[in-house]
Amino acid sequence: MVNVIGLGYIGLPTALMLASHGVETVGTDYNSKLVAGLNAGCPSFKEKGLDELFESAVGRGIKFGTEYMQADTYIVSVPTPYDRFSKKVDACYVVEAVKSVLKVCPKGADLVIESTVSPGTVDRFIRPLIASMGLTMGEDVHLAHAPERIIPGNMIRELQDNNRTIGADDKDTGERIKKLYASFCRGEIVVTDIRTAEMTKVVENTFRAVNIAFANELAKICRHDDMDVYEIIRICNMHPRVNILQPGPGVGGHCISVDPWFLVGDYPSLAKVIDESMRTNDGMPDFVLGRICEIMKEKGMKDISRVGLYGLTYKENVDDCRESPTLQLLESQERHLAAGLKVYDPFVKKDMVENQYHDLGAFLDDTDMVVIMVKHDEILENMDRLKGKTVLDCHNVCRMPGVYHL
User: Fold this and answer.
1) Considering only 161-165, 179-183, 255-259, 332-336, which range has the smallest mean pLDDT?
2) CATH, residue 155
3) Are residues 214 and 353 in the same domain?
4) Catalytic residue set
5) Number of other CB atoms surrounding residue 378 within 10 Å
6) What is the pLDDT of residues 101-155, one digit of tens each?
C-alpha cells in the first residue's frame, strides 16, 4: 500500500493516478475540512481531467484521512515555503511529515520525498532526523526523492507523459520506486542519487526563470527607446538557434517564481545571474503599475478606480493564485498608490482581494481602462467587448488598434 502525505496541487493528482492504475492508495492531509470534502466526492481544486480521474480512483478504492497509515511506501508531497528576505527554503513541513511517517512506518518501508526542496535538504534535515529517532538508513527505512514535473492546467497529461527523475541511496530502492511510478508514467524514468535529483528539479525551473527574465529585461529596454519588443523577438526567433520567450507581467506559481531562490539562498556568492534574473522577474508587477500610471497620465485619466485588472491567477485557465503577478501588483499598489484598482477573474469564485468582481459584464461596465494580466480563453473570446476602452495588453494578445503594451 502507498500512503500519500499532502493532498494539494501535487499530492492529490499523484494519489489519484496511483489508485486509478490499481495501486492500493491512502491519501493523508492534516486539513480535516479538505479531507471531508474529498470523502464527500469534491476535489479541492479545479483541473482539466481531475474529476474523471477522481471518479476512477474512488472506483478503485482510494481512501482519504487525516491519520498516517502503515504502508509499504510513503510519498511526502507537502509545501516547501521560502523566506522572501533570506531566500532560503523552509523545510519544516517536510521534516514534520517525515517525523510523523517514521512514527508509524513498518521496518523496511520506502520513504519518497516528492516535495521540491533545495539541493542538500535531505542530507541536512532528513538523514539527521532519521538517525535521531534511532533508525538505520537502508534497513529501517529506504529513502528516495522523486520531484514532480507538472504544471497546473495540464497536470493529468503531464503526470502520465513527462519524464521523471528518481533519486535513491541504492539501486534496489531506486528500481522499486521507478516501478511504482511506472504504473502510470509513460515517460522515461531516470534513476540517480538523491542530491542529483534535488538539483535537477531546481535547475530546470531556474533555466526557465532566467530565460523569462531575459525577455522581460528586453521589454524594458525596448520600452525605454520606444521599440516594438514583440517584433524584435519575432525576427530574432527566425534564427535557427534563437528561441526568445515572450515578456509578461511577472512570474507566478510555486515553481519558477520560487525554486531559483533556493540556489540564491544556498549559494549567494555564486548565483549572480540567477539572483539578477529573479529580481528582474519580481520587478515586473511594479513595471506594469508604472505603465498604468504613464498611460493614465497620457489619457488624462484621474480616477484609478476606473482601472481594472483582468486576471488574478498566476497563469491562464487555472484557479491557482499562488505567487500571482496580479497579487504582487496589488501589494505594490498599496505601497505606492491609494487603493482602488478593480479585479476580475472567471476562475476565482471566492473573494480574495478588495474590489473583486465575479461578472465580466459588470467589471467592464465599471472600468475605462483594462489591463490584461492573464490571457484566459474568456478574454481572448471577448476582445470585441474591449472596444472603446483603453487597454494595456501584457501578453500581446489584443489585436485592436491603439492598444498599449509593456
Assistant:
1) 332-336
2) 3.40.50.720
3) no
4) 201, 255
5) 17
6) 999 999 999 999 999 888 899 999 999 999 999 999 999 999 999 998 888 788 8
